[in-house]
Amino acid sequence: MENHRLMPTSPVSKRSSRLYSLVGTLKDGRLHRAEDLARDLGVSVRTIYRDMDTLAASGVPIEGERGVGYRANAAISLPPLNLSKMELEALHIGLAVVGNGMEGDLRDAAESLSAKIDAVLPEDATAIEQGFGFAVYPFANAAQGLRHLEPLRAAVRSRQKLSLQMSDGDTRDVRPLKLDYWGRVWSLLVWDETAGDFAQIRVDRIAEVSLLPGLFVEEPGKRLEDYENR
Q1: Which end of the chain offers a freer environment for a tag, N or C, measured as fewer CB atoms within 10 Å?
Q2: 13-65 tens-digit pLDDT
Q3: Which are the contacts of 220, defined by CB distance < 8 A and separation ≥ 6?
């Protein structure tokens, strides 16, 4: 029978796991003695002291002292983050899904997080003064629009003509040119063949997306660059 040997856990991995365990324990807000923490984790009290120094230096809000005990005196803080536009959209989607699909503590947390993000976003004259993840429209409508994002992106890339059934009952045959994010709302720039002009369509107002036969070719006056130049 073939023998299988387990690879030993590296000291770095063990310490990282221990630090996460300590954070999980300390965030209950109660005072924990170093001796008790050391016994639970199977390490020395001296090791716990070093771990507490490491957590404090990393920005975890630890209060306490040796011989007395330790606790986290506030919520865990994250360092400043630089987000790309796509990362910000992904965060918006996540908040929208949680806000629409959950109740209780998770929904409350999503609302709180959206307010914190909104407070640090750059000023945007087009933005509605509501929380980032909950901006502009009711969540039922937001969730309705989220399912269209990937099909619309694919249609823009492939130059696929679309028939859009709108929530008000209208049907619009369009050439999708650009999917964008304006004032915290997703919108689709199209050449509207029904109206014979460019149009910005809010994605949350689209009820159904259907593919039309054939792809479109760029024609002067109906291109994205024509819209931008105009």
Answers
A1: N
A2: 677 778 878 887 887 778 899 999 999 999 999 999 988 888 887 767 788 87
A3: 226
Domain count of the fold of the chain: 3
Whole-prediction pTM: 0.48
Contact residues for 23 (Cβ-Cβ < 8 A; gap 6+)? 55, 60, 72, 76
Alpha helix stretches (DSSP H) within the chain:
11-26, 34-41, 45-57, 85-101, 105-120, 139-146, 149-158, 224-229
Residue-wise pLDDT tens digits, 159-202: 999 999 998 999 999 999 998 765 456 789 999 998 999 998 98
- Identify the domain containing residue 179 by its residue range: 147-229
Q: Which amino acid is at 98?
A: V
**Does one domain contain both 95 and 156?**
no
